């Protein structure tokens, strides 16, 4: 009995496991899965420690067998080393991929190493995910492993292992969110006068809300245009339409929202008319007759948009040198630029009014104010003027416009 049980790494497993070992008795060392001892085989040997009175004094020491089969004196502790290390800071996750860099710290122990990606749990409708196919063999002492194309917002397990069943690394991860699919079902509930839609499933990301834009044109009240831009909670699946005259035309766009942004736009057009004959969806503006090309003015017969009992609000008068449905919409809920006489003007604010009653307004009289300029009109130009009322809340913006078109 020449050697006592070594006091090395507490995670080491010795076979045979005993308190004392005889000379040249070979011991096999192992560790828990994912770790490898710095020596897999050791043995107890006798070495001369000193000479006393001409006689050698022996003591028991440990030797370990290296990769070439040679036995070398062990001069430090034998420890359990992590076989595989995933390089910190290199884990990359997107909505469709997982990528990591790995390093094998004990090359001899990394033979036949393989990596896989798998669904971390069963999928269920409506968010069914396909199982990832394939297994990649890892070669060398370091490299990069990238999972095959994955699905967004889905849990996967990444595993690197050695045959038959030694797991060197495992990681549970969820791919990042992406924008949601396009809403497919929206309809008008005639009994309640509300828009209704089918809630989007959180397959590509947690649905945090809906972006709803409603454009209303009146076929009876010429020149009327109302545009609503709403941000609704994910729990909401209906929105009441504001009451308008029979025969109003509606254009509705909707997008689902996740933390990654807004998804594709769905568009619907419909009318509240009982007639089978569709009305044109383009807007028709009021015409103006009282025009003075020599003075560069036109008289607009304005009426308040806000009707009693609502409190009168500030109205803007916006002027633009164009007229088509899209351009009128852009001007109605756009942000007009200051008037610039050195270039062809786009949409600009000509006046800010507190309208409480019908009034005739002289457009182009040259007056100025804070943020507006009622600039003289240019002879030979075509104009569109919008009387605009803007109402904003935390969840909604509503732009109501009445348009006038004329030529100077």
UniProtKB/TrEMBL annotation:
Residues 179-276 form the Fibronectin type-III domain. The gene is Ptpru_1. This is PTPRU phosphatase. It comes from Balaeniceps rex (Shoebill). The keyword Magnesium does not apply. CDD domains: FN3. It comes from the Eukaryota. Keywords: Disulfide bond, Repeat. Coiled coil: none annotated.
């Amino acid at each position: 009995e020449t050697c006592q049980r070594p006091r090395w790494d507490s995670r080491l497993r010795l076979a045979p496991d005993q308190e004392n070992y005889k000379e040249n008795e070979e011991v096999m060392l192992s560790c828990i899965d994912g770790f490898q001892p710095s020596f897999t085989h050791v043995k107890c040997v006798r070495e001369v420690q000193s000479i006393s009175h001409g006689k050698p004094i022996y003591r028991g020491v440990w030797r370990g067998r290296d990769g070439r089969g040679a036995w070398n004196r062990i001069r430090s502790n034998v420890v359990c080393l992590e076989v595989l290390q995933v390089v910190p800071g290199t884990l990359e996750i997107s909505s469709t991929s997982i990528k990591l860099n790995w390093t094998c710290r004990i090359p001899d122990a990394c033979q036949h190493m393989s990596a896989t990606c798998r669904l971390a749990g069963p999928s269920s409708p409506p968010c069914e995910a396909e199982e990832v196919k394939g297994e990649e063999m890892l070669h060398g002492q370091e490299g990069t492993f990238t999972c095959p194309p994955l699905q967004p917002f889905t849990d996967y397990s990444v595993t690197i292992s050695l045959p038959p069943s030694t797991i060197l690394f495992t990681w549970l991860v969820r791919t990042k969110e992406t924008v949601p699919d396009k809403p497919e079902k929206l309809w008008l509930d005639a009994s309640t006068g509300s828009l209704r839609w089918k809630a989007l499933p959180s397959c590509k990301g947690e649905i945090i809300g809906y972006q709803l834009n409603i454009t209303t044109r009146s076929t009876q009240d010429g020149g009327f245009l109302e545009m609503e831009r709403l941000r609704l909670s994910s729990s909401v699946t209906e929105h009441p339409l504001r009451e308008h005259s029979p025969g109003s035309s509606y254009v509705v766009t909707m997008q689902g929202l996740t933390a990654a942004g807004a998804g594709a736009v769905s568009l619907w057009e419909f009318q509240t008319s009982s007639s089978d004959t569709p009305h044109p969806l383009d807007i028709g503006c009021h015409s103006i007759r009282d025009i003075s090309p020599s003075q560069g003015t036109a008289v607009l017969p304005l009426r308040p948009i806000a009707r009693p009992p609502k409190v009168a609000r500030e109205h803007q008068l916006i002027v633009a040198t164009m007229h088509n449905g899209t351009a009128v919409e852009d001007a109605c809920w756009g942000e007009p630029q200051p008037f610039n006489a050195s270039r062809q003007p786009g949409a600009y604010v000509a006046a800010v009014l507190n309208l409480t009653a019908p009034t005739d307004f002289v457009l182009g009289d040259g007056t100025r104010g804070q943020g507006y300029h009622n600039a003289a009109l240019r002879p030979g130009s075509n104009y569109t003027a919008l009387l605009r009322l803007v109402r904003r809340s935390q969840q909604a913006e509503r732009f109501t416009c009445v348009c006038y078109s004329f030529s100077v």
